[in-house]
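Hello forum,

I keep getting stuck at the same step: I have a sequence, I want structure tokens, and every attempt I make locally crashes halfway through. Rather than fight my setup again tonight, could one of you with a working pipeline run this one for me? It's a single chain of 414 residues.
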Amino acid sequence: MDLLKFLNDSVTPWHAAANLADELKSRGFTPLKEAEPWKLSLNRAYFVERGAAIFAFRTPCKWTPDTRFRLASAHTDFPALKITPNPDKNVAGFHLLHPEVYGGALINTWFDRDLGIAGIAMVQNRDKLERRLVRMSALCRVPELAIHLNRGVNDSGFQVNAQNHLNVCLSGAASKLFVTSLEEEVGAKIVDFEMQFFDAQAATFGGLSKEWIFSGRLDNLLSCEAIVNGIALQSEESEHLRGAFFFDNEEIGSETRTGAAGNFAAAMLERVAASGEISHGELLGKLSDSILLSLDVAHATHPAYVEKMEPNHSPILGKGIVLKTNAKKRYASEAESNAVVKILCMQNEIPLQTFVSRNDMPCGSTVGPHLSAELGIPTVDLGEAILSMHSIREMSAVFDHDGMQKLMSAFYKA
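Reply #2:
Ran it on my machine without issues. Output:
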């Protein structure tokens, strides 16, 4: 999979999931319908979609008492501005669209950017509802107030009121509602929609040696791309079940039907185990002796704010992938599972760094703790270090992504 193309094409979680599904199909994975019965064959590759979430897996060549689960996880969503159901406003000659903030967006970075519009539209086709993937051609903008009218901005900071200041300029005329323009784009009457704004600037390589990646949505599409390449490339026979979860809604807590705190993971693993006549109790036993790699980006040390990091656990951009630990278990990493990853990295000459948050600065979390608690599976939280996390445009290192791809290939092959 071409990383920059994946980043440019995956402008919403729905688009990310569709692109992952296309990649899996091109690599020989057979799509399954969750609502239909499954007939799984041994040593075959499959995937299931639920909304903007996906579970991809390779069945073992045979089910044995030694069969275990090698799982990885990431998330398809990212902080964004989502268009509200009734978004239209007309102010000072502008047709504005009112958004709702999704996730922990660094909202000051959304000003003075070229914004695209994309998402899904639900349309009625005779007696059925259909989901249409949409990416509109129009570019929009949230203009910042001129310094002449905000003289203290450089001293007191850019103060944003998310309700009042984030309305997006769609056009200079308000002859029709947004939903009407959307219907013209789709070519059908719309019953409902889930649309959002995205950074329209293309992903690119940066730095004198093109050692960096500049793009929106690096959190967490970097992890998605590394995982899908890892599981897609490893087609050798194995007695282990190799799987990959791509969840939605991590940025808002995961407590949804497509999130890691929902029943998607447990339901999928139960159904796969049933194909091997593995009972619920046996499944739990196998999971307790399996491993999950929870991939999400990590904080790189910022050159202007080195004091924000714990001095002995300060990942450097371009110096290797990051193992994340936390005494309060905001990350699910534990010594036993960490050791597996450390050995894999040593065997494959993959540089590994460690992140621990400062005691006076609480850290974020990932899908790892949800899955570890629900499934009882030993888990490691890993990621690529990035700067500008949750900005509309983030920064990572090519070297670190190469390392993560190498690790995922080794993980599914080992």
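The mean pLDDT is 95. If your local run keeps crashing, start a new thread with the error log.
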